[in-house]
Each structure stands twice: as C-alpha cells, then as structure tokens.
Specification:
- There is one protein chain.
- The chain is built from 2 helices and 4 strands; from the N terminus they run H-E-E-E-E-H.
- It is an alpha+beta fold.
- The chain has one domain.
- The protein has a 4-stranded antiparallel sheet with strand order 1-2-3-4.
- The chain starts with 7 loop residues before the first helix and ends in an 8-residue tail after the last helix.
Length: about 80
C-alpha cells in the first residue's frame, strides 16, 4: 500500500473514532506513515496519531493539541 488511505481497516477505525468523538476530518487531510503508525495532518498540523503495529488487533488513536481546533465543530449554545 502506498497510502494509508488505501488501508480499509485503518480508515474504518478512523471513521468509527471520528463518529464516536463528534469529529470531522476534512477531505484534504494528509495521512503519512511514521515509524510505528500513521500521522494525520490538517494544515501541516498533526491532528491524530494512529498506532499501526502488526501485533495490535485494532488501531489506537490519540488526539493532539490541534485536534479540537481542526476537527471538532463548535457547538452553539441555545439560550
């Protein structure tokens, strides 16, 4: 696989995580392999870190200090 986006199990895990945590990933997000996982960039900022080791049954996903700013939609308060 040339791109992490071609890994259907990984993309399913990302989709499930985004839905569960009310996050929205832009279509132009950049997925790049790193030594032990995949980094997800938006505007050159790492917004998610995905563990991708062969011995793991699932893909643990961690948020970064940029996740809220780039992925979480603001919620309007009704008064």
């Amino acid at each position: 696989m040339n791109s992490p986006k071609e890994n259907t199990r990984l993309m399913q895990a990302v989709g499930d995580y985004l839905t569960k945590n009310h996050l929205t990933l832009p279509r132009d997000a950049d997925f790049q392999y790193c030594i032990d996982g995949v980094l997800v960039f938006v505007d050159d900022k790492i917004v998610l870190i995905i563990g991708d080791r062969p011995d793991l049954a699932d893909y643990p996903i961690e948020e970064t200090e940029h996740t809220d700013k780039y992925l979480r939609q603001p919620i309007a308060a009704i008064v």
